[in-house]
Design brief:
Elements lengths: L1 E8 L9 E8 L3 E7 L5 H9 L6 E6 L9 H4 L2 E4 L10 H8 L8 H10 L13 H15 L3 E5 L7 H13 L6 E5 L3 H4 L5 E6 L2 E7 H7 E6 L9 E5 L2 E7 L9 H10 L2 H7 L1
Parallel strand pairs: 3-7, 3-8, 5-6, 6-7
Antiparallel strand pairs: 1-2, 1-4, 8-9, 10-12, 11-12
Helix pairs in contact: 4-5
Length: about 280
Protein backbone atom coordinates (compact mmCIF):
# COMPACT_ATOMS: atom_id res chain seq x y z
CA UNK A 1 0.00 0.00 0.00
CA UNK A 2 2.59 2.60 1.17
CA UNK A 3 6.30 2.19 0.42
CA UNK A 4 8.81 4.82 1.49
CA UNK A 5 12.41 4.17 0.47
CA UNK A 6 15.49 6.20 1.36
CA UNK A 7 13.39 9.35 1.61
CA UNK A 8 15.24 12.62 1.97
CA UNK A 9 13.40 15.92 2.20
CA UNK A 10 14.24 19.53 2.88
CA UNK A 11 12.18 22.67 2.35
CA UNK A 12 15.07 24.64 0.85
CA UNK A 13 18.74 24.17 -0.01
CA UNK A 14 19.66 26.48 2.86
CA UNK A 15 17.95 24.23 5.42
CA UNK A 16 19.13 20.99 6.91
CA UNK A 17 17.21 17.91 5.72
CA UNK A 18 14.04 17.23 7.67
CA UNK A 19 14.29 13.53 6.75
CA UNK A 20 17.29 11.46 5.75
CA UNK A 21 17.08 7.89 4.44
CA UNK A 22 13.59 7.36 5.83
CA UNK A 23 12.13 3.98 4.88
CA UNK A 24 9.03 1.97 5.78
CA UNK A 25 6.32 -0.23 4.34
CA UNK A 26 2.68 -0.13 5.42
CA UNK A 27 0.03 -2.63 4.39
CA UNK A 28 -3.73 -2.40 4.12
CA UNK A 29 -5.98 -3.64 6.90
CA UNK A 30 -4.18 -1.58 9.54
CA UNK A 31 -4.52 1.60 11.60
CA UNK A 32 -1.09 3.17 12.04
CA UNK A 33 -0.22 5.74 14.68
CA UNK A 34 2.43 8.29 13.63
CA UNK A 35 3.99 9.76 16.76
CA UNK A 36 6.69 12.33 17.36
CA UNK A 37 7.52 15.47 19.29
CA UNK A 38 6.63 18.92 18.00
CA UNK A 39 8.75 19.72 14.98
CA UNK A 40 9.59 16.09 14.23
CA UNK A 41 8.03 16.43 10.78
CA UNK A 42 4.83 14.40 11.14
CA UNK A 43 2.67 16.73 9.06
CA UNK A 44 5.38 17.06 6.41
CA UNK A 45 5.61 13.29 6.14
CA UNK A 46 1.83 13.02 5.73
CA UNK A 47 1.95 15.62 2.95
CA UNK A 48 4.72 13.67 1.23
CA UNK A 49 2.53 10.57 1.40
CA UNK A 50 -0.46 12.23 -0.23
CA UNK A 51 1.55 14.15 -2.83
CA UNK A 52 1.32 17.69 -1.45
CA UNK A 53 5.10 17.74 -1.12
CA UNK A 54 7.74 16.12 -3.32
CA UNK A 55 10.76 14.17 -2.02
CA UNK A 56 14.17 15.78 -2.38
CA UNK A 57 15.63 12.31 -2.86
CA UNK A 58 14.33 8.77 -2.52
CA UNK A 59 10.75 7.75 -3.22
CA UNK A 60 7.23 7.53 -1.87
CA UNK A 61 4.89 5.05 -3.56
CA UNK A 62 1.17 4.73 -2.82
CA UNK A 63 -0.68 1.86 -4.48
CA UNK A 64 2.23 1.64 -6.94
CA UNK A 65 1.83 5.32 -7.88
CA UNK A 66 4.03 8.32 -7.17
CA UNK A 67 1.64 10.58 -5.21
CA UNK A 68 3.35 13.83 -6.21
CA UNK A 69 2.22 13.08 -9.77
CA UNK A 70 -1.35 13.77 -8.60
CA UNK A 71 -2.90 11.22 -10.97
CA UNK A 72 -6.73 11.21 -10.71
CA UNK A 73 -6.68 7.40 -10.57
CA UNK A 74 -4.71 7.65 -7.30
CA UNK A 75 -6.37 10.75 -5.85
CA UNK A 76 -9.76 9.04 -5.92
CA UNK A 77 -8.33 6.49 -3.47
CA UNK A 78 -6.69 8.93 -1.02
CA UNK A 79 -8.34 11.21 1.51
CA UNK A 80 -6.27 13.60 3.64
CA UNK A 81 -7.83 15.39 6.61
CA UNK A 82 -5.45 18.15 7.76
CA UNK A 83 -5.47 19.69 11.22
CA UNK A 84 -6.35 23.12 9.81
CA UNK A 85 -9.04 23.48 7.15
CA UNK A 86 -11.56 25.89 5.64
CA UNK A 87 -15.23 25.10 5.19
CA UNK A 88 -17.36 26.88 2.56
CA UNK A 89 -20.67 28.54 3.37
CA UNK A 90 -22.81 25.71 2.01
CA UNK A 91 -24.88 22.98 3.62
CA UNK A 92 -23.69 19.42 4.20
CA UNK A 93 -26.07 18.26 1.47
CA UNK A 94 -24.55 20.62 -1.10
CA UNK A 95 -21.00 19.76 -0.01
CA UNK A 96 -21.68 16.07 -0.48
CA UNK A 97 -23.34 16.64 -3.85
CA UNK A 98 -20.32 18.63 -5.04
CA UNK A 99 -17.59 16.32 -3.71
CA UNK A 100 -18.82 12.75 -3.33
CA UNK A 101 -18.57 12.06 -7.08
CA UNK A 102 -14.77 12.29 -6.91
CA UNK A 103 -14.73 9.07 -4.85
CA UNK A 104 -16.14 6.04 -6.73
CA UNK A 105 -16.62 4.02 -3.55
CA UNK A 106 -18.48 6.76 -1.69
CA UNK A 107 -21.07 5.27 0.71
CA UNK A 108 -23.94 7.71 1.28
CA UNK A 109 -25.71 5.32 3.63
CA UNK A 110 -22.63 5.22 5.84
CA UNK A 111 -22.41 9.01 5.76
CA UNK A 112 -26.01 9.38 6.92
CA UNK A 113 -25.37 6.95 9.76
CA UNK A 114 -22.23 8.80 10.85
CA UNK A 115 -23.98 12.18 10.70
CA UNK A 116 -26.63 10.75 13.01
CA UNK A 117 -23.97 9.37 15.35
CA UNK A 118 -22.25 12.76 15.47
CA UNK A 119 -25.60 14.60 15.82
CA UNK A 120 -24.97 16.81 12.78
CA UNK A 121 -27.95 18.34 10.89
CA UNK A 122 -27.38 18.08 7.15
CA UNK A 123 -29.26 21.28 6.29
CA UNK A 124 -27.11 23.77 8.21
CA UNK A 125 -24.35 25.87 6.66
CA UNK A 126 -20.93 24.38 7.33
CA UNK A 127 -19.41 27.75 8.20
CA UNK A 128 -22.00 28.09 10.98
CA UNK A 129 -20.72 24.95 12.72
CA UNK A 130 -18.26 25.07 15.61
CA UNK A 131 -14.72 23.85 14.96
CA UNK A 132 -15.55 20.53 16.61
CA UNK A 133 -18.68 20.07 14.49
CA UNK A 134 -16.73 20.84 11.31
CA UNK A 135 -14.11 18.28 12.33
CA UNK A 136 -16.81 15.65 12.98
CA UNK A 137 -18.32 16.27 9.56
CA UNK A 138 -14.98 15.91 7.79
CA UNK A 139 -14.24 12.70 9.69
CA UNK A 140 -17.65 11.34 8.65
CA UNK A 141 -17.09 12.38 5.03
CA UNK A 142 -13.59 10.89 4.98
CA UNK A 143 -14.78 7.52 6.24
CA UNK A 144 -17.68 7.56 3.77
CA UNK A 145 -15.32 7.95 0.79
CA UNK A 146 -14.11 4.41 1.48
CA UNK A 147 -10.71 5.49 0.14
CA UNK A 148 -8.05 2.82 0.44
CA UNK A 149 -5.72 5.31 2.13
CA UNK A 150 -7.11 7.61 4.81
CA UNK A 151 -4.69 10.08 6.39
CA UNK A 152 -5.71 12.04 9.48
CA UNK A 153 -3.65 14.82 11.07
CA UNK A 154 -4.72 15.35 14.72
CA UNK A 155 -8.30 14.13 14.10
CA UNK A 156 -9.46 14.40 17.74
CA UNK A 157 -8.35 18.02 18.26
CA UNK A 158 -11.46 20.08 18.90
CA UNK A 159 -13.68 17.11 19.77
CA UNK A 160 -15.43 16.99 23.14
CA UNK A 161 -15.20 13.85 25.30
CA UNK A 162 -18.41 12.17 24.00
CA UNK A 163 -17.38 12.88 20.40
CA UNK A 164 -13.97 11.27 20.98
CA UNK A 165 -15.76 8.14 22.11
CA UNK A 166 -17.94 8.21 19.00
CA UNK A 167 -14.83 8.74 16.86
CA UNK A 168 -13.22 5.60 18.27
CA UNK A 169 -16.40 3.61 17.77
CA UNK A 170 -17.01 4.69 14.17
CA UNK A 171 -13.35 4.21 13.24
CA UNK A 172 -13.43 0.67 14.58
CA UNK A 173 -16.64 -0.20 12.74
CA UNK A 174 -16.45 1.67 9.43
CA UNK A 175 -13.25 0.30 7.87
CA UNK A 176 -12.73 -2.45 5.30
CA UNK A 177 -9.82 -4.86 5.08
CA UNK A 178 -8.41 -3.17 1.98
CA UNK A 179 -8.08 0.20 3.72
CA UNK A 180 -5.08 1.69 5.49
CA UNK A 181 -5.51 4.50 8.03
CA UNK A 182 -2.61 6.67 9.20
CA UNK A 183 -3.26 8.88 12.22
CA UNK A 184 -0.79 11.53 13.36
CA UNK A 185 -1.61 12.68 16.86
CA UNK A 186 -0.37 14.11 20.13
CA UNK A 187 -3.54 12.86 21.82
CA UNK A 188 -2.39 9.26 22.11
CA UNK A 189 -5.03 8.33 24.69
CA UNK A 190 -7.75 9.20 22.19
CA UNK A 191 -6.64 6.58 19.67
CA UNK A 192 -4.50 3.99 21.43
CA UNK A 193 -7.29 1.40 21.43
CA UNK A 194 -7.51 1.73 17.63
CA UNK A 195 -3.85 1.64 16.63
CA UNK A 196 -2.25 -1.69 15.71
CA UNK A 197 1.08 -0.35 14.42
CA UNK A 198 3.29 2.46 15.72
CA UNK A 199 5.69 4.70 13.81
CA UNK A 200 7.83 7.05 15.93
CA UNK A 201 9.70 9.94 14.32
CA UNK A 202 12.70 11.62 15.89
CA UNK A 203 15.48 13.72 14.33
CA UNK A 204 14.52 12.78 10.80
CA UNK A 205 14.39 9.04 11.32
CA UNK A 206 12.01 6.34 12.53
CA UNK A 207 13.16 5.31 15.97
CA UNK A 208 10.44 2.66 16.08
CA UNK A 209 8.15 0.96 13.61
CA UNK A 210 6.47 -2.05 15.14
CA UNK A 211 3.11 -3.77 15.45
CA UNK A 212 1.58 -3.72 18.91
CA UNK A 213 1.68 -7.51 19.20
CA UNK A 214 5.48 -7.35 18.67
CA UNK A 215 5.76 -4.77 21.45
CA UNK A 216 3.49 -6.75 23.78
CA UNK A 217 5.63 -9.84 23.24
CA UNK A 218 8.71 -7.97 24.46
CA UNK A 219 7.44 -5.51 27.07
CA UNK A 220 5.17 -5.61 30.09
CA UNK A 221 3.33 -2.45 31.20
CA UNK A 222 2.16 -2.16 34.81
CA UNK A 223 1.52 0.17 37.74
CA UNK A 224 3.51 -0.46 40.91
CA UNK A 225 4.23 1.19 44.24
CA UNK A 226 7.97 1.52 43.59
CA UNK A 227 10.06 2.37 40.52
CA UNK A 228 12.95 0.22 41.69
CA UNK A 229 13.89 -3.22 40.49
CA UNK A 230 16.59 -4.70 38.34
CA UNK A 231 14.15 -5.41 35.53
CA UNK A 232 12.61 -1.93 35.30
CA UNK A 233 13.47 -0.45 31.93
CA UNK A 234 11.55 2.80 32.36
CA UNK A 235 9.27 4.41 34.95
CA UNK A 236 7.08 7.47 35.43
CA UNK A 237 5.44 8.76 38.59
CA UNK A 238 1.63 8.81 38.54
CA UNK A 239 -0.96 9.37 41.29
CA UNK A 240 -0.79 6.37 43.61
CA UNK A 241 2.51 4.97 42.38
CA UNK A 242 4.54 4.48 39.23
CA UNK A 243 3.95 3.29 35.72
CA UNK A 244 6.74 0.93 34.76
CA UNK A 245 7.94 -0.98 31.73
CA UNK A 246 9.69 -4.29 32.28
CA UNK A 247 10.71 -7.15 29.99
CA UNK A 248 7.87 -9.49 29.13
CA UNK A 249 8.17 -12.86 30.83
CA UNK A 250 5.21 -15.18 30.98
CA UNK A 251 2.15 -13.00 30.65
CA UNK A 252 0.72 -10.20 28.59
CA UNK A 253 -0.43 -6.65 29.16
CA UNK A 254 -2.04 -3.89 27.16
CA UNK A 255 0.51 -1.65 25.49
CA UNK A 256 0.49 1.83 26.99
CA UNK A 257 1.44 3.76 23.85
CA UNK A 258 1.92 7.09 25.61
CA UNK A 259 4.24 5.52 28.18
CA UNK A 260 6.06 3.69 25.40
CA UNK A 261 6.55 6.91 23.44
CA UNK A 262 7.94 8.68 26.50
CA UNK A 263 10.21 5.73 27.21
CA UNK A 264 11.62 5.61 23.68
CA UNK A 265 12.02 9.40 23.48
CA UNK A 266 13.36 10.04 26.98
CA UNK A 267 14.42 6.65 28.30
CA UNK A 268 17.79 5.02 28.64
CA UNK A 269 19.83 3.45 25.88
CA UNK A 270 19.04 0.12 27.55
CA UNK A 271 15.36 0.73 26.91
CA UNK A 272 15.88 1.73 23.29
CA UNK A 273 18.19 -1.20 22.62
CA UNK A 274 15.78 -3.65 24.21
CA UNK A 275 12.89 -2.57 22.01
CA UNK A 276 14.87 -2.52 18.80
Amino acid sequence: MVTIKDLKFRYSKKQSPLFEELSCELSSGSIVGLLGKNGAGKTSLLKLMVGLLQPTEGSVRILNHQPSGRQPSLLQDIYFLPEEFHQPGISIRKYVKANAAFYPRFDEELLNRLLTDFELPDDRQLNQFSYGQKKKFLIAFALSTKCRLLVFDEPTNGLDIPSKGIFRRVMAGALDEDQLVIISTHQVRDVENLIDRVLMLEQGKFIMQKNLHEIAAKLHFATTSTPHGENVLYHEMVPGGYKVITPQKDGSSSVDIELLFNAISNGTEKMKAYVN
